[in-house]
Amino acid sequence: MKKVKKYLVLPVVLVLSISFSLEASAYKFNDDNNRFFKCSTCETAYPSYSWGDNMGGSSVIKSAWQSAVSDWKSKQSKVEFVYSSSSDSKLHSYHSTDKSLYGEMRWTSDLLKFVTKFNGYINNNANNITTTNVARSTANHELAHAMGLDHVSGTAVMNSSRDRATIYLPQTDDVNGINARYPVFKNNVLDEPILNKEPEYNINNLSISSDILTFNSLEQMASNADVIVMGHFNHSKGTINMLRDPNNPKEESILGYQKGLIYDFEIDEIISGNVSETMIDIGLRSDSDYFFTDRDGNEKKISIDNPLFESPNTSASYILFLSKDTDLDMYFTPFEPFKLIVDSQNKVNVETNLNEFQSSIEKSYEFEDTKEILNVISEAHYNWIDNISGTDVSDVKNIIKGQRMK
Ligand SMILES: [Zn+2]
Question: Domains in the chain, please, with CATH?
Fold first, then answer.
């Protein structure tokens, strides 16, 4: 299925790369080929949205969503988001202890790949989220996922390793992607025929794509972590809801659940930062709850995996880059990647799913009672290049210390 889609996208990309430049054709469509419905003679799709969780009053997050709606409107004419208080597509704010997680877009699409509902989230606890334009950059990124775009490298709001303070508006590549996603008169033509093998079943697709902070160099990692330690993981000893009450992060959120597995980590050496304990608790985000509304209108709880989660190896020696959560007295992920394994030759290997292009997780749920199938894609296409594996531990420490003294 995936391969077929790639070939179908390719001709469009080739034509553009001949007429423009290579950078102008970098955009990619999501795996599920989603888009908003517009009538075949219409110029513009008008998806509606309303405010979701934690959006009362004014906030950096709410302004970011509002700016992004008008940013996209000013950059192209294919999709225009329209506020409607009765819309069941919602824009939210939440507080996740995973500081690498800027935001998420979750959307359902039907057999014709039209988006039936979307829910966008921005994490008010993400790294530097209150820095000017950082939240706005995330909002523009998340809206583009709902419109149909996947991650890319290069100058684009869809690049996860962009500088969010400067690349916060839809860029040329992003706009080209949207224009290509909504061709004139062709938006109702399917990219490929879909055979519903079980016609008595109603098929739904749910996709999730996140905006994650990624770094390519040890220098960036060193200057963006609270603490950097070397040591060993013990087995997972419990779980925590990483979604917290935004007004009181000591309490868990009652509006959602993001499972964090808690690991004891035994510190052998503090490379940088202030840590007084020799044993610390680290929370790693594993999966989240999502509610699917079936055709009878009932909500069904399903669980969505974080494609970047990987169980730590309890017999390996690690160098970890961490952020400290003072409300919970625990440590979490500040960015990806954040784990280096030290091998027997004293060289480091980055442990991450970022470089595995096919690390998206696909799951299928079948609901007998309403005769529905829900295909879930948790997308993880990040353009990350490993420049770090193979470095000597002593060099890693020197780079970290040199960077932290600046
Ligand atoms: Zn994303």
Answer: 2-200 (3.40.390.10), 214-405 (no CATH)
